[in-house]
Write a structure and sequence with these properties.
45% strand; 2 domains; 1 helix; 7-stranded antiparallel beta sheet; single chain; 6-stranded mixed beta sheet; 334 residues; 2% helix; mainly beta
C-alpha cells in the first residue's frame, strides 16, 4: 500500500442548509496516514522526522489529470457526518484542474441519509454531505479544504463548487452556494466567492461577488467594504460604502471593467419606509460618489447593460428608470 505523506485535512465545517452557509474552516492540519486510492481521512499529527510537504507547481503544461477513482477510507468524522460517510460511496460532483494540470479541485457528494434515532422517538431528517478536496497526484497528496452538511430538500443557497484557479496554482476560487438562493429574499442576490491561498492556507470570502467582464478580477463585500482582488493575485483595492442607508446590494461591473456600481438601501423587502442610493466606484482609484438617491419606493436593483447607461428597478411598484452617466439625468425607462 502506498504511503501518503503529509496530507492536509480539515475538520468538517458542519452546517444545515437553512440559508446560512458554512464558512471556511481553519488551516489544515498536516497528517501522515495510510490510504487507498484517493480517500477522505482524519489522522494524527505528522511524524517529526518527515518534512512538511509543499505544493509543487509544474513549470510546463501537462495534460490535465483525469478525475481519480474515489475510494473513501475509514473516517472518524463527527456525527452525523460519520453516519453519512458510512452509508455509501460518494459521487464525484464536480472537478476543476489547475491551469498546468498539477492540481485538481474536486467535490465529493454523499447522498441523503436519514439522521436520527427512530427507535428513541427522534424525527429522522435526511441529510447529505459534500467535501471539497484538492488532489496533488504527482506528490500523492490530498487536502480536504471545506465541507457542507446539508438538509435534503431544505431551502436556501448551498453546494460547493470550484470556480477558477490562479495561473500559478497558488489560489483556488470556489463558492459555497452552487445552487439556490436565500429563502424569502426580495432583492437580487449574488453568491459568495471564497479565495483559498494554498501557500498561506488562508481563506477570504467576498459576499455578493462579481467577476469583471474580462475575467481577471473579483469584487465583493468583505467586513463592510467593497474589495477587489486579482484572480491571479492578491487584493487590488477597497472602498468603504457611503454614509447613506445601511444595507448594500450586489456589485455590478461596467462593460469595460473600469468602474463598479451598487445600491445602498434601508429595507430589504420594503417593510419600512426608507431611502436608496446608487453609488459609483472607480476601479482604478477606488473613489466613490453617489449618483442618485430615491425613496418611496426604494430602488430594488441596478444593472449596467451598456457603456454610459445604468438601469434601475423599483422595489414595490415595479417601476423602471434609466440613468445616463454623462448627463446625470434619471428618467423613466421607455
Amino acid at each position: 500500500m502506498r504511503r501518503l505523506i503529509g496530507g492536509l485535512v480539515l475538520l468538517l465545517a458542519l452546517a444545515a442548509c437553512d440559508g446560512q452557509l458554512p464558512g471556511p474552516t481553519q488551516q489544515p492540519t498536516i497528517v501522515a496516514t495510510e490510504a487507498v486510492a484517493v480517500s477522505s481521512v482524519v489522522a494524527p499529527s505528522p511524524m517529526v522526522d518527515e518534512p512538511t510537504p509543499t505544493l509543487a507547481v509544474a513549470t510546463d503544461t501537462p495534460t490535465p489529470t483525469p478525475p481519480p477513482t474515489v475510494t473513501p477510507g475509514p473516517s472518524p468524522t463527527p456525527e452525523p457526518a460519520s453516519l453519512i460517510v458510512a452509508a455509501g460511496e460518494p459521487r464525484l460532483k464536480a472537478w476543476l484542474p489547475s491551469t498546468d494540470g498539477a492540481l485538481l479541485a474536486e467535490v465529493l457528494a454523499y447522498d441523503c441519509v436519514p439522521i436520527g434515532d427512530a427507535a428513541a422517538g427522534e424525527v429522522q431528517t435526511p441529510q447529505s454531505l459534500e467535501l471539497l478536496r484538492i488532489v496533488d497526484a504527482a506528490a500523492d497528496l490530498e487536502y480536504q479544504v471545506d465541507s457542507q452538511l446539508l438538509n435534503c430538500g431544505g431551502l436556501g443557497a448551498f453546494g460547493l463548487e470550484p470556480l477558477a484557479w490562479s495561473d500559478d496554482g497558488r489560489s483556488l476560487w470556489y463558492t459555497t452556494a452552487r445552487e439556490g438562493g436565500p429563502d424569502g429574499a426580495c432583492r437580487p442576490w449574488a453568491r459568495p466567492m471564497t479565495r483559498l491561498d494554498l501557500e498561506e492556507w488562508s481563506y477570504t470570502t467576498l459576499d455578493q461577488a462579481a467577476t469583471s467582464p474580462d475575467g481577471t478580477k473579483v469584487a465583493g463585500w468583505l467586513n463592510g467594504e467593497l474589495v477587489v482582488y486579482a484572480l491571479d493575485g492578491g487584493e487590488i483595492g477597497r472602498a468603504a460604502p457611503a454614509a447613506l442607508p445601511p444595507n448594500v446590494g450586489p456589485i455590478v461591473w461596467s462593460p469595460d471593467g473600469t468602474a463598479l456600481a451598487y445600491l445602498q438601501f434601508t429595507s430589504y423587502c420594503g417593510e419600512v419606509a426608507g431611502e436608496s442610493a446608487v453609488v459609483l466606484v472607480d476601479a482604478a482609484t477606488f473613489e466613490s460618489r453617489v449618483l442618485v438617491t430615491q425613496s418611496a419606493p426604494e430602488f430594488e436593483s441596478v444593472s449596467w447593460p451598456e457603456a454610459g447607461r445604468l438601469e434601475l428597478a423599483g422595489l414595490l411598484d415595479g417601476g423602471r428608470w434609466v440613468y445616463v452617466l454623462a448627463t446625470g439625468v434619471l428618467s423613466v425607462a421607455p
